[in-house]
Structure prediction request, 313 residues.
Amino acid sequence: MPERQEITALVENIEKAIIGKRQVILQVAAALLAGGHVLVEDVPGVGKTQMASALSRSVSGTFNRLQMTPDVMPADIVGYMMIHPESKKIVYQKGAVYCNFFLADEINRASPKAQSGLLEVMEERQISIEGRTIPLPRPFMVLATQNPVETYGTYHLPEAQMDRFLMRIVVGYPSKEKEMQILSDIEGDNALQNVAAVFSLAEVERMQRDAAAVTANQLIREYIWEIVNATRHDENIRLGVSPRGALALQRAAKATAFINGRDYVIPDDVRTVAAPVLAHRLILSPRGKSSCASQEQALSQLLERVGVPIAAV
Prediction:
């Protein structure tokens, strides 16, 4: 089934800066419509930061980027209270996260203390500081990047932090054809200059509501539970998916159905987003580490064993 016209417009707009990664862009779009956050993980130079920047430019909201280094403090992220020099009143000084799209570049280079500043922000979409609760602008989305290969000067993201990302997406290298197109068409950083806003914030919020209203019937919910429950009893997996992960899978499947022009979820929607939504929530057992190359492979093997409902519509 063809994509909705507005989603096609968004994807084609981002493709002005990111060539040959349509499926990855659709996953990011699904995360946006599901109201979730995205961790973009891959080696340097494949377009992680470019992807996040292009998405934020496609929506007429505010965008802040913070280069996560060991000296970044929680106050740099969430802000702080200060005495106004003129009024002498205590006022809130906004941090980098006070925006619609926040890019935490190389998030695993920030200290655990700084990373903890994102936990409440990502889950509650608010900031609690000195007894005050400050809501963040809507829509709000965190896009974080990290390089999984380089470990010097990095900090492991704790499971609580990983669980707050709706999706972990791997960009990967482009095909020869697409890379030749990159070499001929894109001139370095100038690619982002071609990306303009195609959505207003109100339009994004409307599509988020429409995506949330997509129907997932009883058979689909049972299918999601079967997948999640299987991760908790698989000998290759030491830590399975939490109820938050099950909810994330349903939200992402609804967003995928919406993108494909349907108002109901089918099993293929669930399977399409299962890897980016669930794999990063798993911890492999010693057996799993020896028999599976990655969390994605362990999940793929598990999905083959879980029966797909026949009459799921």
